[in-house]
Amino acid sequence: MKLPLSIALAAACLASMPAAFAKDKPAVPAPAVAPAPAATASNEVWPEAYFEIFKLAPGKQEAFIRRIARADEVSKAGEQPPIQMFVHEDGADWDVLLYKPARTVKPTAAQEAAMAVKRKELGMESGPAYFIAIRETIASHTDTKTYGPITAAQWLARLDQWRAEHPRK
User: Fold this and answer.
1) Distance (Å, rounded) from C-alpha 65 to C-alpha 85?
2) Which candidate, 99, 103, 80, places its Cα nearest to that of 143?
3) Residue 2 has pLDDT above 80, yes or no
4) In the beta sheet, which residues pair with residue 101?
5) CA distance linking residue 131 with residue 162, whole number of Å
6) Mind listing the pLDDT tens digit for each residue in 31-75?
7) What burial class does residue 45 get, using C-beta atoms within 10 Å of its C-beta: 0-12 exposed, 13-18 middle, 19+ buried?
8) Are 140 and 90 in contact (CB under 8 A)?
9) Which residues neighbour 125 within 8 Å (Cβ) at sequence distance 6 or greater?
10) DSSP β-bridge partners for residue 146
11) Dist. CA 79–CA 121, nearest whole Å
12) What's the rounded Cα separation, in Å, for the pair 155 and 74?
C-alpha cells in the first residue's frame, strides 16, 4: 500500500518542531545532521531527500530498529550522518518512516574502509545479503525521492521561469 507523500513530509516537518511544543513528552535532542543547502535561485540544483515508509512484520519492530541502529554505527565509523527515523505513534497504517537527505559527496576510500571494518565487527551483512536479511523484518515498504527542503516561493520561481521559457502557442 502506498501512503500519501503528505504523511512523509508532515513527519519530516515535525522533526524540526521545537521541544516546547511537545506536551508531556521529554525533550529529545535532534540528530546531528548537517542542514540541507537552501536553493535560492530558480535555476539552482535543489537538495534531494528520500523517504522510506515501512510497515513491519508482526513482532519484528525491535529487530528492524536494532538493524537501523547498527547501520548508524557503521555510518558513524565513516563520519557519515545517522538515518533520521520517525516511529509511528498514532494515526496512519505504518510503523517507521526513514528520512535520508541525498548525499552530495561520496565517502572517501578511508571512510568506506572504516565502515567496512565496523560492518565486519558488528557481523552485519552487506550488498544483497543485507537486503535479504532486513526484508525478514518488513511486511511492506514504499519509498520516494523528493526535492527539499525548499520553500513554496522557490518552487513557484522555478515554475514561473519554466513558463517564461516555454510560452503557450
Assistant:
1) 9
2) 99
3) no
4) 49
5) 40
6) 454 454 554 555 678 899 999 999 999 999 999 999 999 999 999
7) exposed
8) no
9) 132, 133
10) 49
11) 17
12) 35
Give me the amino acid identity at 155. Answer: W
Contact 39, 154 (CB under 8 A): yes
Going by C-alpha positions, the residue among 146, 158, 144, 145 that lies closest to residue 39 is 158
* Lateral strand order in the sheet of 48-56: 84-87, 96-101, 48-56, 138-147
Cis previous bond, 107, omega within 30: no
Which tens digits make up the pLDDT trace of 77-109?
A: 999 999 999 999 987 889 999 999 988 889 999
Query: Residue for cell digits 537501523?
Result: 68
DSSP assignment string, 92-119: SS-SEEEEEEPPSSPPPHHHHHHHHHHH
